[in-house]
Amino acid sequence: MEFGSSNRGGGPWRAAAGIGAVVAALLIVPVAAQAEPVEQVAAGNYDYDGDGLDDVLARRDETGALELWPGDGAGGFRPRSTVGSGWGGMDLIETAGDLNGDGRADLLGRVASTGALNFYPGNGTGFDAPVRIGRGWEAMLTVVSGHDYDGDGNRDFLAVEAGTGTLWLYPGTGTGTHGRRTAIGSGFDRVRELTAIGDMDEDGHADIVAVRETDECMYFYGGPGSGGFEAPVLFDCGWDVLDSAASVGDFDGDGHADWLGRERASNLLYLFKGDGLGGYGSSPVVDTGWNTMTIA
């Protein structure tokens, strides 16, 4: 099975009819623009073994082992290795880009029993001892990271607060910590899957995509690079067939941001190959048996 191709201006990629209704459902609060550097597709976000190619991290749920699945630069994997143990106590594992500015990709993890959010500095072969970012993160439905959303050159966090549906921006400092948070959206409690996709439309700014649980439609939020997002655009619908999605940088080496999706019924893992226009060109199967894995 291959999912249909998509791009702006034709096919399943289309502007939502009645876009005002979409904005009301998932309100994006505009933020004043400022100068910003250009966002790079990969930018070291997903290279965990230092070979220059983007990789995938996943937890094997039955053992709690953290596995590195090295990318081969052409949309496939090289042999996996175990890079950590004891990750079964995490209810959130998220790729983080280079949070501390040392040139290596890092990881975020939330401890289920305490709600503490930890930062795991990458060392090129695994991860160093965790650094506590803070407690109280159990109040967040999801946390994503890995890209610069406010244009200061540092990797930021985005988090959706349970109960209120507020989308918060936690500006990164370049040292693995964050500054004072800012509310940049509301209504995101209706989102079941939020993915920090990188610069999907290649306008120089980091974007996000979100799947709403109410209609199983995916929406694209273009980042203006000033800390907020533009009005959502309907990507396409029928995403209930996937139960997990993760950004993987430029996984096939064509210069465009890609992402992985796991099909619920078959446990097949698909690579959605970005086309650089805000959509994707094809979605080949890259592996099977991922039903026991949590993708970072």
UniProtKB/TrEMBL annotation:
Keywords: Signal
Naturally occurring in which organism (per UniProt): Glycomyces artemisiae
Parts of the chain that traverse the membrane: none
Lineage: Bacteria, Bacillati, Actinomycetota, Actinomycetes, Glycomycetales
InterPro entries tied to this protein: FG-GAP, Integrin_alpha_N
Protein's UniProt keywords contain Transferase: no
Coiled-coil ranges (or none): none
Annotated protein name in UniProt: VCBS repeat protein
